[in-house]
Amino acid sequence: MSCTAPIAFAACTLVVGLGAVLAETEIRLPGNHQGYEPLQPIAYSHRIHAGELQIDCLACHYGAEKSRHAGIPPAEVCMQCHQHVTAPFDTILEERELAAAEEREPRLIVSPEMRKLYDAMGLDDELKPDPERERRPIEWVRVHQLPDFVYFDHRVHVARGLACAQCHGPVRSMERVRQFADLSMGWCMDCHRTTPADRNAAPAATPGGDHVSIDCARCHY
Amino acid sequence: MRDPNGSTTDPARCDDIVLPVERDNASRRTFLKLAGFGVASATLAGCTRGPVRLVVPRLDAAEGVQAGRPFWIATTCAGCEARCGVLARCRDGRPIKLEGNPDHAVSRGGLCAVGQASLLDLYDGRRTDGAVLRGESATWEALDAAVTEALASAGGGVRILSRTVTSPSTRDWIGRFLAQHGGTHVEWDPRSASALLDAHDAAFGVRALPRMHFERTDVIAAFDADFLGTWLSPVEFAKSYAARRRPDDAVTATPSPPMSRHVHFESAMSITGSAADERLVVTPSELRAALATLTIAIAGHAGRRVDLAAEADGAPHAEALLALAAELWAAKGRALVICGSDDPGAQALAVLANEMLGSYGATLDLARPSFVRRGDDGALRRLIDEMRSGAVKVLIVHDLDPVYELADGAGFRDALSKVPFVVTTACAPDETSAQAAANAPAPHELESWNDAEAITGQLSLSQPTVPPLRSARTLRASLARWSGDSRDDHALVRDHWKSVLARRTQGAGAAGVLFDRALESGFVQARPAPGATPRWNDAGLRALLAAAPRPTPTDGGALELVVHAKVGVPEGRHAHNAWLHEMPDPITTLVWDNCAQLSPATAARLGVSDGDVVRVVADDGAAVELPATLVPGQHDGVVAVAAGYGVSGTDRFSRIGPSWLEGRLTVREGETVGARAAALLELREQGLRRSGRAVTVRATGDSVELATTQDHHRMEVPAHLATARDSTRRVAVVTTLSELQENPAHAIPRHEGPEASLWTRDHDNDGPRWGLVVDLTACNGC
Lengths: 221, 782
Hints:
The structure holds 2 protein chains of 2 kinds.
Chain A: H1 4-23, H2 46-52, H3 57-60, H4 63-66, H5 75-82, H6 89-102, H7 112-121, E1 140-141, H8 154-159, H9 164-168, H10 185-194, H11 216-219
Helix pairs in contact in A: 5-7
Chain B: H1 11-17, H2 28-45, E1 54-55, E2 71-76, E3 85-91, E4 94-100, H3 113-122, E5 132-133, E6 136-137, H4 140-152, E7 158-162, H5 168-181, E8 183-187, H6 194-204, E9 209-212, E10 219-223, H7 234-242, H8 247-251, E11 261-266, H9 271-275, E12 278-281, H10 284-302, H11 318-330, E13 335-339, H12 344-356, E14 364-370, H13 377-389, E15 394-398, H14 402-405, H15 412-417, E16 421-424, E17 438-439, E18 450-455, E19 458-462, H16 475-482, H17 489-499, H18 508-521, E20 523-525, H19 538-547, E21 559-564, H20 578-582, E22 596-598, H21 600-606, E23 612-618, E24 623-630, E25 638-642, E26 682-684, E27 687-689, E28 691-703, H22 724-728, H23 737-742
Parallel strand pairs in B: 7-8, 7-15, 10-11, 10-13, 11-12, 15-16, 16-17, 21-25, 22-24
Antiparallel strand pairs in B: 2-3, 3-4, 5-6, 5-17, 9-14, 18-19, 19-20, 21-28, 22-25, 23-24, 23-28, 26-27
């Protein structure tokens, strides 16, 4: 008797749980991570970089043109700007004004988030390479993840002139990156069925037209 | 926060439910459990994720390195001593695939199964991490201190036992080390070519292998030499052999050389024999008489007296041999007799035949010899005697597991226990390292600096394709350190290239960039290393022939044993490579086992069939039990057993594999994959005897199920599955060269019946298509 109780409890939970989900009217298929927005090791803001500063996506994610992966840029790419920009601009400005008022050289202000980048690069407090410090790559949390059985290549999509936002959504307004599309096969097919093979032609209205490939083997091989 | 669908997703909540991070140590089982939980909870909570995956980009933006884009590093294969050039395809910092390097002048883009699979050994979890001292993990400093102490009291009793060392920089350091500490270097190969080397030493005063040029050869007579599969340098040979196996050239291009003719004599079945134009079976004991018959006939054409009538006694296939001698003589200077026998007498006869045919300097190059084998069986025997007598104080065993390879027949295990200090360089625990005082594990070739000169003047370089996965040190670096030079391998190899090998290149300007060019292309050519000039010595050859006892045929019900090498697992050092075990043997189509191979007639006589366990017993009582398998085309008087199996520790494979598919184990706990043929080998005065030993074979009454991928000789569709069309379809087209030259069209098979397609009709497939065509004349089933 003692073993049936937990099973009964589990069954009840399942029924209640399913009921709750159905009531929410959203059944999410396994593997659908739409809306996933994990915390990242550094509070990097796409809103500031891509939105306010209008840095082009491909400036950092240059892999999208060269590789199947868009890739997360090496820390050295960050350092191209952040060897100079060590903290939010207003904080630096404040320090400059204060320094001017106190008639001294402005101190180097390093924000805690930027310090994480410098730690990764093994830089000391003056941002000089310190051989004593271990250089440790940053472990970002992956947001967009396709299953291993599908081959996706950024190159062809970028070459075809697809806007990054079409699949990745309004990253320019995202503080932290969130998975915009559900990345399901149906979602891929919706686009493949309506995109003409000829890049100059108008989008085809119905399936069966002269669209880009929907062969199984195009992505699954 | 709202997601695009409008439903509320609280990121904090999502993060709370996020499943445990999948790190390196998360097992597949854990992953599946979590994934299963993920499915269940996804429907319940509507806000959950699979395992969190990390993306770890590089810190530096290295030029040309892009996540997801593979790049190639030119390096050298260490699967065997032929040292083919390879290109390692590296993705995200790890080699993931090896291919042949087309710029390598010897292997020319080829790479055999062993080479391809050697990648897996890099990632073998069994590999030793760091120095081992008296069975315990130790620091390298402690190991160096122990070795230095042992060397100090060795008093000249230092021996290095290794397989053939092809690396010029390692040879250089072996020389320097031994000059400092006093001692000798003994080379011995499990797949020995000692008899072949001895014959050339006796006949020419040069202990080297002539480089064989099949591309210059019109008529090939091969005796028990599986040169396309496992013998000496199979990739090089397959390339040069295939160059003369093109019927298209013979039909169309008039000035091109004619197709070569290949007559093969062997006792077991090999892929080389199956590629031959004519294949004749001989027992190992008949082989020498067959070679003598051929040599006498060639001498007759040459008008020379050879006095070999006694040798030719009892030769089989006398008529075929006379016809072959005539063919060889007609192709004088474009003919080749090769012999893979371990009988120095047979090798002496082959050398004599080649000399009369004018092969040296034409199809055989002894001026620019090959050093894929240097091993000396006699030197090994003397070493074992020295070890027994206590003269050896420090023994360094490199790249070799003699305790396994020699079994107990040679008494190596006992001799080893008499050596006070044994150092091994085993990259994973083996039977010799288990008896050693210290083990300085060698790194895998793909993570180390190394070089190779398998054929003199053809220099290959190995460079790391990945940072070392284990703490290891090459023999070269260890010897340098024990000689007081603590530089790393990069410096040692580079220094040898700049100071020694560079002297052999043309011009001073070229010398400086030799190493850099090798870094880029993996291969450079230089002048041959200085060596003795070959000088014909008829008396020496005669003496060798007279000293080698004539093989005696077996009597009664005994069979002659052939211990051969399989294409997949040619030696014990590959026994931990599951990819090679999974590869079906091209002759038997067996995977995961070695068998007692018998001809169908012999099997019928013994009352055994496929899978029946037999006991193979040698005259001294050494015995091996293993399942029988039937191999059509094998000599009726022979039982063939593959070496390289029965390696301890291979029961590791009992716990892997898809247990839900008819869950049978490939190997049981505590047992080994296959049986150890080394127990049946015999180390005699003339060298290690791998074939010709008299054995009795008896059924034990047990039976096992063999794992085979295809039944024998099923080229046709089985009758119960055949449709009307199958009966007319020719799978392999067989024709003769003269027929083909007369009517080139007749050998081209045509498809009959309607074209069928897998696609439905509404599915256009006008785009690019591909087809696979195998040139069956060049195909050797490798």
